[in-house]
Amino acid sequence: MKKKLTTEQKSYLAYSIELIIFSIVFLVLGILKMTNVIGYNEQRRLIFNYITLAGCAFGIGDFIWFCFSKRRRARNFLPDKIAVLVLAFYMITYDLICLLTNPDGATTNMMLGAALVYVACVYMFQGIYHYYKPVPGYVEDIKKAIAEDEANEAKKKAELEAKKASEENKKDDK
To answer: Are 56 and 95 within 8 A, CB to CB?
Structure first.
C-alpha cells in the first residue's frame, strides 16, 4: 500500500519537478544554440552581454552576502551559491570576450550553448538533490505557509460555526 504524501512532501516534489523542467528547457536551448538552430544576431548578443554583466554582478554580490550573513547562510545551500558563482565568472569572461574582441557567431553560440548546458546540469542536480534535502529557507517558508493555511482554515471554521450559532439563536428567539 502506498504512503500518502504530506503537504510538505508535495511541495518539495513540485519544487523539484519545476527545477527539472527548467533543466530540460535549458538543455534544449543549449543544444539548439550549439548546433546553430538558434541563430546569431549581433544586436541581440550585445544587449545580452550587458544584461548578463548586470546579472553576474548580482550573482557575485549574492555570494558575498551569503558568506557574510549568518541568517542567509542558514536559509540557503552553499553548493547552489557556488554553482551560480562559477556561472557568473564564466559569463563575465564570455561577455568580456564578446565586447572586446567581437568573435564570430559560431564561437559565441558554442560558448553560450555551453553555459546553457551548465545551467541545465545545475538545475538537474538541484531538482534531484533538493527533493531529498530541501533548502532550509524553503522548508521554513513551507512550514510557515502551512501554519497560515491551517490558521485561516480554523478561523473560517470558527466564523462559520459562530454564524450557524447566531442563526440558531435567531430561530429560537422567534
So the answer is: yes
pTM over 0.85? The answer is no
Tell me the CA end-to-end span of the chain in Å, nearest whole number.
54
pLDDT in tens, 82-125: 999 999 999 999 999 999 998 888 899 999 999 999 999 999 99
d(CA 138, CA 141): 5
**CA–CA dist 139, 12 (Å, integer):** 8
The Cα 31–Cα 28 span in angstroms is 5
Rounded CA-CA distance 174/171 in Å is 5
Confidence band (pLDDT; 50, 70, 90) for 146? confident
Picking from 43, 53, 54, the residue whose alpha carbon sits closest to that of residue 105 is 43
Say if CB 38 and CB 32 are below 8 A apart.
yes
Q: What is the pLDDT of residue 173?
A: 67
Query: Considering only CA atoms, which of 126, 60, 123, 48 is closest in space to residue 88?
Result: 60
Q: Please state the rounded mean pLDDT for residues 20-42.
A: 94
Residues in contact with 80: Cβ distance below 8 Å, sequence separation at least 6, in sequence order: 122, 126, 135
Unique residue bearing C-alpha cell 552553499: 78
Whether 92 and 23 have beta carbons less than 8 Å apart is answered as no
Q: Of 40, 31, 32, which Cα lies nearest the Cα of 108?
A: 40
